[in-house]
Structure formats: C-alpha cells, structure tokens
Amino acid sequence: MATILLTGFEPFGGEEANPSWNAVRAVRDSWSGPGTVHAVELPVDFRGLDAVLLDAFERYQPDVVICTGLAGGNADIAVERIAINVKDPGVPDNAGYLPVDEPVDEDGPAAYFSTLPIKPIVARLAEDGIPARVSDSAGTYTCNYVFYRLMRALAELRPHAIGGFVHVPYELAQAVGSVRPRPSMSHETITRAIALAATTALESLEQRLDTAVGLT
Amino acid sequence: MATILLTGFEPFGGEEANPSWNAVRAVRDSWSGPGTVHAVELPVDFRGLDAVLLDAFERYQPDVVICTGLAGGNADIAVERIAINVKDPGVPDNAGYLPVDEPVDEDGPAAYFSTLPIKPIVARLAEDGIPARVSDSAGTYTCNYVFYRLMRALAELRPHAIGGFVHVPYELAQAVGSVRPRPSMSHETITRAIALAATTALESLEQRLDTAVGLT
Amino acid sequence: MATILLTGFEPFGGEEANPSWNAVRAVRDSWSGPGTVHAVELPVDFRGLDAVLLDAFERYQPDVVICTGLAGGNADIAVERIAINVKDPGVPDNAGYLPVDEPVDEDGPAAYFSTLPIKPIVARLAEDGIPARVSDSAGTYTCNYVFYRLMRALAELRPHAIGGFVHVPYELAQAVGSVRPRPSMSHETITRAIALAATTALESLEQRLDTAVGLT
Amino acid sequence: MATILLTGFEPFGGEEANPSWNAVRAVRDSWSGPGTVHAVELPVDFRGLDAVLLDAFERYQPDVVICTGLAGGNADIAVERIAINVKDPGVPDNAGYLPVDEPVDEDGPAAYFSTLPIKPIVARLAEDGIPARVSDSAGTYTCNYVFYRLMRALAELRPHAIGGFVHVPYELAQAVGSVRPRPSMSHETITRAIALAATTALESLEQRLDTAVGLT
C-alpha cells in the first residue's frame, strides 16, 4: 500500500490561516484510500523547515510527496514544474530571517524538476471543473525552498518515490475586505484539487511500477 | 408576503452557460422563505429585453427586484451603485445589434441609483466569507441597460418597491483552460451570495415599511 | 481665440508627485496655440476644491475645460464618460475628510455626461500611438467630485463651453520599487496625451460653432 | 576593448513589430562607448535559433551578451535570473514547430543561472526612474530557449564572458486598441533600459577583471 505525504504551511504575512494547510489537513481527514495519507504542517522558517520535513520522511517513508503553499494573487491551482537553487524571499520569514540571493544548497544543482505527473494533474483538475495550470516558477521563498529540499531528499533517499509542489490561491474568506479585489477559491475546491492531485500522482506511480515489473 | 423577482442572463460570447442565470434559478429552487422568489432568464438582446422584464413585472408584482449578470474577469461579487443612460456595448448582442453611444431612454435622466441596500449587502456577504464590493459602473452593455430600465420601471410603476443589479464572476468551470488565468467563483458560492442579497434586501424593505407604519 | 483651462491634482496617498498636475503644467508651458492654455493645481480636498475651480472659472472664462487626475493601476489614458452624484472615497482626502455615500449636490441630478468629444479624443491618441479608452466610471473620490462640479458649473454658468475629465496612469518613476508591478507611462507620453485631448476638444468646439453659425 | 552582443527577436503572434529588436537595434545605433555593441535579430524558431546565435558568437567574440525578448502583459523590465531545460511553448513558433515538455539539451543540467549582475541592473534602472525587477521565470518559449543555449555556450566556449536575458513589455503602440488594457512602455524607455543594462554589465565585467588582475 502506497503512502502519501502532504505538507502545507503555517500562516504568514499577517494572515490568520493558510489555505494550503487547511486543505492538506482536510484531505487527510477525509481520505478513504487507496493508500494512506499523512499531513504535516511546515513552519514558514527557512532554518526550521528541514528538520520537520526530514522527520516526516523518516517516520512515514512516503512513496508520493506533495508539498503545498499559498500563492496570494493566483486565480488557479499552480502545479509547479521546477525548484531552483536560490533563497531570495524579499521579506523575512516567520523567524525574521531574510536571506538574499543565497543558494538552497551550496553544492546542489541549479534546479530540480518535479517528478509528479504535472500535466496529468492539470488535466484531471480540468475534468473536475477546477482551473489549474503548470507553473514555471515556485518563487524564491520558503515554498521554492521546501520544494528544492524535497526533490533533493527524494533523489538521495527515496529514488523510487515521486514528489513536487502545488501552489493554491487565497481562500474565499481571505479575499473579503481586501483593498484591491483578490482572486480566491473556496476551501472545498482547494481541498478537492489537492485530493485529485494525490490520486493522480498515486496512479502515475502505480503505472510506473507496473511497467517496471512488466519489464523484468 | 413580499415577492422577490430575480433575473439572470442567457449565455453570450460563446460561453455555454451564464453563472447569473444558474445562480438565480438555484436560489429560486432552494428558497424556503420568507416571501416568494420568482426567477426569469433574460435574453442578451437590447431590443428584446423590455418585453420579458415588463411581462415579469405584471405577472409577479415584485416588491424586490435583483437583476444579475456576468462580469467576466471580476474576482468578487459586485453590487452595482448606478445605472447610466447609454448603450455602447462594443460588441454586438446575441441578436447582432450593436448600438454606439445611444441613450437607453431618449427622455430619461443621465442615471438612476440602485435602491437596494448596497452597503448592507456587501457587509452581509463579508460576514458569510464571500468577497464583495460596491461597484460604480455596470458597464454599457445589456447589464447596465436592464438595470436602467428596471430602475425607471420601478420609479414609474412600483415606487414602493426596491431594486438593483449585481454582477457575478465567472463560474469555476468557465476558468478552466483559459489562456490567461481567470478569477472565478463556485456556483455554490455565487448562489449563496445572491440568496443573501435577496434576504438583505427583503429585511431592508420591511424595516422601511415598519418605519413608515410607525410614522402614521 | 478660445481659452482652455486644464486642471491637475496635488499629490495624495503618500506619493511625492501627481502625474496629472505634472502633465497639465507641461502642456501649458509648451503650448504654441491655437488658443490659450491655463493650468490650475487643485487640492485633494472635497471642501476646498470648489473655491479654486470657480475662481479659475471667473478668472479665465474658459471655452474648454479638461480636469485630470491620477488613476493608479490604470495602464492607459481613460477619457471619462460620466460624473455621478456621490462622494464615497473610502479613504480620507488630504484634509482628513471622509464622506460616506453623500451626494455631491443635494439637489443635483444623478449624473452628468462629459461634453468633451470622448471617442474622437481616444481615436486621436490611438493615431498618435498612445493607448486610451473611454471609461464609464471616474470613481467616487475627488476626481469624480470635481468632474461633477465642473459639469454643473458649465451647464449653469457657461453653457456654450465644453468640458470633462481624463484619468492618467502612474508616471514611470512611481512604478519604481513597488511591491507588485504597476503599469505606468512616461511623463512625456502623458503630457502629449493631454495636449492632444485639448487640441481635439478645441477642434470639436470650433466645428460646433461653425455649424451653429452656418445654421443662422 | 570589450565587445557587447545584444539580441532581440523578430515579431511573432501576429504583432507587426517586436519591441526587443527595436530597442536592441536602437542601442547599437546610438552607442557611444565604452566598448563596441553588436545587435542581432533572432528568429522565433526553436530549430533555427542556434545557427544565428552561434554565428554571432564566432563573428563577434563577445564579452557581454544580453538577449532580450517580449513579455506581453508585463508592466516593467524583467531581468531574468534563470534559464530552465525545457521547451513547452504552448503555441507553435514562427516555423510552426510545437515541442511539448522536451528538454533544450538532452544532456544539459536542469537550469543555468544568469551571470549578469541582475540586482545591480535593476538598481541602475530604478535610479534612472525605470521600473524593473528580477524575474524568476523566463517562460518555456524561445526566450527561455535562447537564454539556456546562451548560458551553455558561454560556459563551454567563453567562460570569461557574462550573459543573460532581459524581458521587455509591449511598446506603447502595441497597447493601442487592445480589448483589455495592456501595460506598455515607450520605445525610448525600453531602449534606455537596455543601454543601462549593457553599461552595468560592462562595469561589472571590468570590476571582475580588475580584481582578477589585482590578485596576480
């Protein structure tokens, strides 16, 4: 039975909630299979992220990992294509740390591609009536950071597993009262999107394993 | 018992559905009171609108009228403040008619203000977690046209009644596969917004009537 | 010889300059005819505007009046179609005054249409390579306020004269360093746009006068 | 004397001109030193780009290379940070070729970072009143493609040289008459921006060489 690890972020930037953690938690609580879903809330903290992520890796031994975060201002679900080797958030993280143009890993490659089936996930969401697209930049904040660290950890520790990152829009309530109108999505829709992404990733993994078995 | 008339538009511009009519119909079908809700689908046709609107006026004798339409590209519910005396849609209506800088009514005033409680409606939606705002332009297409005709009809035929116009965003599915990401809202959320607007308008009307009675 | 009055606003909202006044002043300083151009800087002050506007009216006896203001976030020149009878700025003016849903004039009509040749101005700017459009809302701040007061003053005091309002984008330098990218336009382009608007208005006025003479 | 190579693209997508080539050509024609500027127009053709780029490399032996392209919809100058190893344009190039999720180079790394002084270029433009920012995605079209090929060519053929990519907005005239307002910039401003980027890159290269000499 496959194990899925989902992560979301804690709130930041003065917001009271983070729709990514709200969704990931709801997916876990309502998951009826196949496989098992674990959900972990990550701190918006460049220097504290790794410990939480690697602890979850050891504890759950995941086959599929989908990290998620908020992309305020986006109107749709953004399935990220690539994580880049830079920290340059522009604003301090929740611990007050503000790196400028620093590498994620001094000795790491310039970038890692997602190993999730990014186009099939977008297509699956579209079938379900949820607007989504492949995004070519996860930014240079903690979202990109955890994405890069995840892909490196998968490459080094769990090469059979697949993983990647998905950005979600503001939740409906976060768009209430904003000075300029903000695109948003309901919690229910975001949750359904993440669940569909997990299902699609799982099917992709199983197909790959079937193919591999067939080849022997 | 108060009577509420809701209108939505038929599809236009190549879209398969119009979220305004979808929502208005759903509000009617699920309405449990107070009062009675009637829903009418209007054609996107400058020259055919009046007959349908006035027919509904005669048939239902409404106390509250909320006309609704799609504002593609909007991220929130827009409660319109004012209808202006001009037809200048820029693109032909569904009947192929394209007026340019023509008045709605040759002998009408430059504009009519909505008589709905526009700020209380926005506040009520916000309480319910739905992003909304007062908008100062309903455009110069059939939305503004029906809004102007409605306000004139109310002023002349049913001065005790109140009415106005609400623009809704694309439905979720209409944002799927668009070249540029489009803000959107789920059908469920739009429907809840229109129902809350109707409820708020009704309460406002009753307060006014109570006050009027109290004064006699 | 025709007299043209141009107005721009003083800075507000923490900005150091207002591109509308910068442009209007530059048009005056570089104007080589036909006619005479006067430029007046208006305060962002609902209660102080009238005195300055009416003083300019008396002093210059203008035949054409174009009031201008900043529409931060706009990407093009917006030639306004209509001024509405409401003050509802959402933020206080420079004097700290914050009216909410108040009329501009208790006894005034709901709206006044611009008497400038709004479509010909847009076409003239397009010919010159400057993006422009007709806008159907000048907002509910001091821009709309002065526009409404101007149209009323023209109707009552100078019925042969024409006037209206033009919104301009941020100047280039105001978009430097903003958190989210802001559309902007160079001072030179904005100035050229206002000069072309004035020229087009003047030609329109002269055509009308010629026609009127021809009719006698 | 340092040699600078600037590239811009030919028009695509039905546009009559490409502001990147317009600017690059104008920089070359008005350059008064230091160094020599060469300008090359590249085809919007994945399979034809390399020959033109490498031919320019051989002919001009550049010390600084700045490739430029149009990012329609951008409001400011985008100094790109990273080129990624993927071709996925979504629409066919000018030769009708439409790769889907293909690598730029089968055996290349996932990405290359720009070796231009990207933050100093942004700062220099800001000093000059031109809005600019570092961008973390050059897309997956021919812009990213030439950027990736450039960085690989520099790494392999001219390791002492520096290079990168700059995206420019629509030119003013390209925003005229568009259905939705488009941010744009005047040709003069875009040209000044590219000239300042070249100057800043040259100074950065010289500082680096001075430092290297000082170390011996």
From TrEMBL, chains A, B, C, D:
Subcellular location: Cytoplasm
GO MF terms, alphabetically ordered: pyroglutamyl-peptidase activity
Catalytic activity: Release of an N-terminal pyroglutamyl group from a polypeptide, the second amino acid generally not being Pro
Residues annotated as transmembrane: none
Keywords annotated in UniProt: Cytoplasm, Hydrolase, Protease, Thiol protease
CDD domains per record: Peptidase_C15
Enzyme superclass (EC): hydrolase
Top-level taxonomic group: Bacteria
One Gene Ontology cellular component annotation held by this UniProt entry: cytosol
EC numbers on record: 3.4.19.3
One Pfam family of this chain: Peptidase_C15
Alphabetical GO biological process terms: proteolysis
Coiled coil stretches, renumbered: none
Main location: cytoplasm
InterPro entries cross-referenced by the UniProt entry: Peptidase_C15 (IPR000816), Peptidase_C15-like (IPR016125), Peptidase_C15-like_sf (IPR036440), PGP-I_bact-type (IPR029762)
Active-site residues, Swiss-Prot/TrEMBL: E80, C143, H167
Family: Belongs to the peptidase C15 family.
Subunit structure: Homotetramer.
Function: Removes 5-oxoproline from various penultimate amino acid residues except L-proline.
HAMAP family given in the database record: Pyrrolid_peptidase (MF_00417)
Name of the protein in its database record: Pyrrolidone-carboxylate peptidase
